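Justification of computing resources. Each target in the renewal requires a structure prediction run like the one illustrated here; the chain below, 63 residues long, is used simply to show the kind of job we budget for.
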Amino acid sequence: MGQMSGLGLLQHLKNSNCTVPVIIITGKPSQSEASYLESGAAGFFRKPVDGDALVELIGSVCL
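Resulting structure tokens:
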């Protein structure tokens, strides 16, 4: 993702008072789901993504 990590992006959005739900999708096995969820992510998926679960989560955060 370039110069900023996913956790860095979440922190930046939080500091900017952004209320847009963020869903993390990663292919890196070392990234911790708990870290992202504790930092405010609406959801976390590892690739390959279960499409049905992703659609369900998107539906729940967009209501």
